[in-house]
Amino acid sequence: MNFHNTLINWYLQNKRDLPWRNTVNPYHIWLSEIMLQQTRVAQGMPYFFSFTKEFPTVFDLANADEEKVLKLWQGLGYYSRARNLHKTAQYIANDLKGVFPATYNDLLKLKGVGEYTAAAIASFSYNEPVPVVDGNVFRVLSRYFDIESDIALPATKKEFTELAKELMPKENPAIFNQAIMEFGALQCVPKSPDCSVCVFNDSCLALQKKKVDTLPVKSKKLKITNRFFNYLVLEDIEGKTLIQKRTTKGIWHNLYEFPLLETNEIVDFDFVSRIIKEEILSSYTITGVEECSHATVIHKLSHQHLHIQFWKVKISDILPNGLNCNELKEFPFPIVIYNFIEKEEICR
């Protein structure tokens, strides 16, 4: 029995019942693929249901306010995905009259749609024989065929794409793509896979050569930057606070936050108190400064570690555009700030 038959038979017996597998609707498949980029299925599933309920069609998503889209996306991370999702929905609704492109090459022209996502939509919705190549596929093929090419290199992506294309049954590419991704997600997992129950344990070269733990090869290591955020949680005499929108490019673009003091290292009370009183909030009458929590929150992103401290600043003035706690919760925030608000640290 050849590779794709074995793989597909395994898939039919072991696949998870996921909502986007029960449709060929390109809108739903596109939503799911964007949401599952660098996100686990268990985490992404509730968001998929929320989006399809709130925005049943691409027109509904296109006509929504960006802040509503970001609010619904809150906690899923990589917020540029949500902004691109919204812009692409507007393009499809307004320029393409709600009709998704029907080919891999045309799908690639959509904002936020890369090779993997385009291949998934093209094969799942239109049965176009284009292979998907993601981390799962790299892992399965590198182990089965004992391929030591560095998956951090662009040339390797091409190598694996050609191999997957050769293995793919042209009459049913969708099920092959689903099968190989599911196999990597459930069976051929990154660490400590149970090879004793694997359907390929008599033909997998990595298993025969005891190289399962060393494949795939990835030499490039991501450089992590440490940043230090001090959020100033103002409280005026009416109990209201102040937030601002992050309009600069970078992390959390167009999300909201408290006034921010970014420093080069973790700072103490004396430093923050002095800067607040003398420079940042010198126009207000400050009656007290205290750290909301003694522990610094470390929020890890893919390329940055954010060391976050929250400082409550009481003032004896009335804040223009001040917001109470209930109003605050209507805005889209980075999840670390939303969690802080939910704990009602600022509403005591």
From TrEMBL:
Its EC number is 3.2.2.31. Its cofactor is [4Fe-4S] cluster. GO terms for molecular function: purine-specific mismatch base pair DNA N-glycosylase activity. Keywords: 4Fe-4S, DNA damage, DNA repair, Glycosidase, Hydrolase, Iron, Iron-sulfur, Metal-binding. Belongs to the Nth/MutY family. Adenine glycosylase active on G-A mispairs. MutY also corrects error-prone DNA synthesis past GO lesions which are due to the oxidatively damaged form of guanine: 7,8-dihydro-8-oxoguanine (8-oxo-dGTP). NCBIfam families: mutY. This is Adenine DNA glycosylase. It comes from Flavobacterium gyeonganense. The gene is mutY.
